[in-house]
Amino acid sequence: MFEIKVSQEIKDACPVFAGAAVYAAVKNTAYCEGLWQEINTFTEQLTSTTQMEDIKRQPVIAATREAYKRCGKDPGRYRPSAEALRRRLMRGIPLYQIDTLVDLINLVSLRTGHSIGGFDADKIQGTHLELGIGKAEEPFEGIGRGVLNIEGLPVYRDSFGGIGTPTSDHERTKMDIGTTHILAIVNGYNGKEGLKEAAEMIQSLLKDYAESDGSELLFFE
């Protein structure tokens, strides 16, 4: 497991922040029917019980949006991933199917409202991560998004540079079909509430759909 530190600038901007990290050996697959049955069931439930304007009021999403403002980012222009996923479904656009590990993280994010970083642990440089705030001109290539302006966004950095924000993770550490170790980080900008449940949901799904026979769980703040 990696050591994860929260910088003073994040503590000042979001004093209640708490995080959970899950590390596990896994087997990724291109598609998993059982997982997609769960995703489709949740999609039907969400779209039949939610209005578009309800999404940003969901407590975890609302707290993440507030953290963006405090760090210096407009959450209307750079949406937290959990909000973006829900808005996509509410517009009638199906959730994109990437691979089992990515799809699984997206499901937990959709269910809980937490923005969750999913990384290929073997691509992370060093053994320490720190959560800070993005700087002007800091290089960051978002997955499928090209160069992302992360100034004012919360960002996890390894010894080489940024690897993840609540809006998008970096191409350098992204998971793919060859990933054999996952590091998933749940961001609790609303504090500890629901954090343990989200992390345990990840552990359970990894066991059910990615052949994980055990995982490590770390809480940090």
Could you walk me through the main structural features you see in this protein, from its secondary elements to its overall organization?
One of its GO terms (molecular function) is phenylalanine-tRNA ligase activity. Residues 62-211 form the B3/B4 tRNA-binding domain. This is B3/B4 tRNA-binding domain-containing protein. By secondary structure, the chain is an alpha+beta fold. It has one domain: 3-Layer(bba) Sandwich (Phenylalanyl-tRNA Synthetase, Chain B, domain 3), CATH 3.50.40. The protein is 33% helix and 22% strand. It has 6 helices and 10 strands, in the order βαβααααβββββββαβ. It has helices at 8-13, 33-49, 59-71, 81-90, 100-112, 195-209; strands spanning 3-6, 18-25, 116-120, 128-133, 141-142, 146-147, 154-157, 162-164, 181-188, 215-220. It has a 4-stranded mixed sheet. A 4-stranded antiparallel sheet has the order 3-9-2-10. Strand 5 and strand 6 form a beta hairpin. Helix 2 (33-49) packs parallel to helix 5 (100-112) and helix 5 (100-112) runs antiparallel to helix 6 (195-209). The chain is globular. It starts with a strand and ends with a strand.
| Low-confidence runs of at least 5 consecutive residues | none
Structural domains: how many: 1
* Percent helix: 25-40%
What is the overall pLDDT average?
97
For this structure, what is the CATH class? Alpha Beta
Describe the biggest sheet?
4 strands, mixed
Give the strand line-up of the largest sheet.
1-4-7-8
The ordered H/E elements are EHEHHHHEEEEEEEHE
Beta strand %: 15-25%
CATH topology-level fold name: Phenylalanyl-tRNA Synthetase, Chain B, domain 3
Name given to the CATH homologous superfamily: Phenylalanyl-trna Synthetase, Chain B, domain 3
- Strands, count: 10
Rg on CA atoms, Å: 16 Å
Q: How would the global form be characterised?
A: globular
Class inferred from helices and paired strands: alpha+beta
Q: In CATH terms, what is the architecture? A: 3-Layer(bba) Sandwich
Ends distance:
16 Å
- How many alpha or pi helices? 6
